[in-house]
Design a protein that fits this description.
Layout: E1 6-10, H1 15-27, E2 35-39, H2 43-60, E3 65-69, H3 72-76, E4 81-84, H4 90-104, H5 117-133, E5 138-141, H6 146-156
Parallel strand pairs: 1-2, 1-4, 2-3, 4-5
Amino acid sequence: MSKAVKVSVIGAGSAQFSLSIVKDLCLTKGLDGSHVTFMDIDADRLDMIYKLATRYAQQLGSALTFDKTTDRASALQGADFVLNAAYVLGHIVEADMRKRAADKYGYYHTGGQFGAYHQLRLMLDVARDIEKICPNAWLIQSGNPVFDGCTLMTRETGVKV
């Protein structure tokens, strides 16, 4: 007999990634009766993923249930597993603008000086939220840089990464 769990997907707005996860969860019979919470800051993309996942699960006859939220803290409530797929895009767009400006004026651009700072900051923030809200949950990190992020979170928090 399987035990129902709660899986929270942080950064669920990617159709390709989230639907691949939904497919795997739906096809895993040991997860029947489990619940998936999708969280993303983009409400439109979040709504699309929620609708697609619900329809897909119904068509497969899966016993999974879903909900959605733009609030990370509420997504983490009661989670047994947290899949962090969130990706900070703003700094990439900003770096691209700097690169284009440098190229326009003939300067060499090596990229942002802070590298993956914003991405790593987000990973650490998620891990710290997990410590407070669902300290027994397992964190599965899928947004890059995975190795650096997992090392950071393991060193700075007590989360099971």
